[in-house]
Amino acid sequence: MRPHHPHRPLAYAVAGVMALTLLLGACTGSPEPTAPSSSSSGPSSLPTAQPPEPDQKTEPTETAPTTTAPGATLAPEELPRVDHPVSLPALMREEVRAGAIERTGRLGGTERWTGHAVTYTVDGATVSGELLVPTGEGPFPALVLNHGYIDPAVYTLGRGMSREQEWFASNGFVVLHTDYRGHAGSDPVGEVGRETRLVYTRDAIGAVRALEQEPYVDTERLGMVGRSMGGGVTYNALVAVPDLVDAAVVFAPVSSSFVDNLRQFTEPNRPEGAQAFYDRFGTPRESPGFYRALSSRTFFDRVRAPVLIHHGTADDTCPPAWSRRPQTLLRRAGADSTLVEWQGEGHAFGPRFADSMRRTVRFLRSRLDV
């Protein structure tokens, strides 16, 4: 477990007052976020995202963060009751153990960073991933990246957030992009672990624990970034282990309601999988408490890290309402949460991707005190 840091509540309270100013303007005292170098190479490299055209003047709509210091209205320290072993409350009681990061191959890089294929273990299971380490001595702030859904049959090492990997590494962050079990070189995952995303959540928690063991990582400056399904994994991790990271960012996240995701994705795309799940655990009507215990929103009062949410208004995969509702609930629970809605952007982010990454880098620098 990460040690508790007594200075953080005060730091977060100050951050809550200053957050809007920092996010709306350039980050003073820090270099402007820079796009990745186009000279990057290696299996995971994608073409560098280009800045928006000069005539593109539409600005994102922002919901400002609450000024309440995170933790001010949190529930008592006792954990939620466990009514079923397949649940977030059960995960809250687990001590996820991770092994050291093992580098298994070189994946290229630029003058700013070097990429490696890696593995680490989570409670004895092997998880593969991609590690990007900035050039220099460090220690560096570090981020775990949780990718969105890609069919495991076609998924390859480090796939899903290659653009983000290079942006963060180019701006001085160590990046560990985890593949989750059942993906790339990771060990297999069972049907229940896959459907509930609880095993993926363990793998993301384990990735943070693995980074904490690296001498070039500043363990006081750890963050987590998730896209789509990985946004849901990130929410799960934040409620399961409130002191896991110091800041979190989600892009176009899936719903914080487990039932929403079942109905949006599993029922139409894998009806036999949905039926098998209902046969085993009951339907949402038959077992409402079971499904609430798999929904991160049920436990948002446990979120302590500041959160930045990005969502495009034209997203037809994960409706924008799936971020508006968590923003309301997070703020109501006393969390430091900011929602930025990007007009006209779809699920994957296109024209405004570079803008969203600059915004993200500024947020992480301010909240991690980089």
How would you describe what is shown here?
The chain is of the alpha/beta class and 370 residues long. The chain is 32% helix and 19% strand. The protein has eleven helices and ten strands. It has helices spanning 8-24, 88-92, 162-170, 191-196, 198-211, 229-240, 258-269, 271-281, 288-292, 321-332, 353-367; strands at 61-63, 102-109, 113-122, 125-134, 140-146, 174-178, 217-227, 247-251, 307-312, 337-342. A ten-stranded mixed β-sheet has the order 1-10-9-8-7-5-6-4-3-2, sandwiched between helices. Strand 5 (140-146), helix 3 and strand 6 (174-178) form a beta-alpha-beta unit. The longest helix has 17 residues, at 8-24. It is globular and about 55 Å long. The two termini are 23 Å apart. The model is unreliable at 1-28, 39-58 and 65-76 (pLDDT under 50).
Radius of gyration: 19 Å
Q: Quick one: how many beta strands?
A: 10
Secondary structure class reads alpha/beta
- Helical residues, percent: 25-40%
- End-to-end C-alpha gap: 23 Å
State the strand order across the main sheet.
Answer: 1-10-9-8-7-5-6-4-3-2
Question: Which stretches are poorly predicted, pLDDT < 50 over at least 5 residues?
Answer: 1-28, 39-58, 65-76
Major beta-sheet overview? 10 strands, mixed
Helix tally? Answer: 11
Q: What's the SSE pattern? A: HEHEEEEHEHHEHEHHHEHEH
Query: Could you report the average pLDDT, rounded to the nearest whole number?
Result: 86
Strand content: 15-25%
Estimate the global geometry from the Cα principal axes: globular
